[in-house]
């Protein structure tokens, strides 16, 4: 009889386990990157078809996970991400297991899907995406990037057994992939001119798209700037109780005050739903928001990352003074107006230097006019050439990012006080732009505040340039995302028109 090999000592066994775990993590990361690369390229190879049919088929194929939890559905031009963040945090701190679905992400795809503030893991992304790709292929469902991502979120939330999900729309509302749900509460934050090629060229047209999330008998909370007539029409048509957050003076200066008021009212309405509803149903007790908790009230006042996020930056091992930096995703004229008001309120005696990049589909000319006004107001009498040096233009590393040539071409023919508008300083990379602004601020006798704004697609690289540590996808994966993630608005606009015609026939 052969002798059994001696058992390895515990140290060797532990080392083997550690090595095995490291290999497993590496394998998971490789699979995660492979599957995300495939996801990012979906819109490149599939025809774009706006509508709810794909999502309805996917959701049915997986056993209707979207119905396994209560939902707060949030739409709006500005503020929807912040309101979603606040409501989710308030529910979480009240003891409710809460899912949060938001877009786009700043540095890591996994930011889009969270439970109680914890990002979905790489392995959970792999498992869900593999299942969705398989089912989509079997049933021949040409699901888009956002439809697949929304389905991934529903599957994760159902598996995690959440009590409630705060669900942010991706684009518009009526045809958005999130709009297959029957929520406990709908929220529409604000309406402004954005994505006009898809949603319409008037406030009323865009409001009608956003109001598409209003459901029969489901209460809806609207922000003070949402067009009341349109919202009342949709609410009446659906027998949906309508609550409007009243306008307050501080809303003109700070989106956060407005977003906090909307989020607070949403939580009030959730608590009201805890009472008996028509038909005798109840909202689960866990969805009550505890307004007596300091932690809950702090959550409602909090800001998500890159929403007027104030940092004080100093280089490691440096004796140079700190530079105050503000990160804000403001990207359209309305948002820049609010950003300007808050800058003047928070830093009344400071001067400002901007690092800006834009998506190609934005009203770049109008946004830059407003940014120039902010700089001019704090540098009265300064020559235009000096003003130019205080605004650093960079290209957002994203398919929708406007190139420096496109930005300056958009300014051609416009004027300031009847004079041809100057070209702004153009810098090739976001890091170079941030570094240049920091250096100029340190060298200035004015103690300038550096403001980074114009697009969410700037924020990951800007935060890295400032030394912030956070989960971030690999450079290779982000390169694929930049190349393939965004569907051109021309294709989406055509798809929207096609969906409109189909709905009318």
From TrEMBL:
Stretch list, region Disordered: 1-22
Molecular-function annotations in GO: ATP binding; dihydrofolate synthase activity; metal ion binding; tetrahydrofolylpolyglutamate synthase activity
Short name of any one Pfam family annotated for the protein: Mur_ligase_M
Mur ligase central domain residues: 74-249
Domain of life: Eukaryota
Mur ligase C-terminal domain: residues covered: 319-455
Record has ATP-binding as a keyword: yes
GO cellular component term of the entry, any: mitochondrion
Alphabetic keyword roster: ATP-binding, Ligase, Magnesium, Metal-binding, Nucleotide-binding
PANTHER family per record: DIHYDROFOLATE SYNTHETASE-RELATED (PTHR11136:SF0), FOLYLPOLYGLUTAMATE SYNTHASE-RELATED (PTHR11136)
Family indicated by similarity: Belongs to the folylpolyglutamate synthase family.
NCBIfam families the record matches: folC (TIGR01499)
The protein's name: Unnamed protein product
Protein species of origin: Phytophthora fragariaefolia
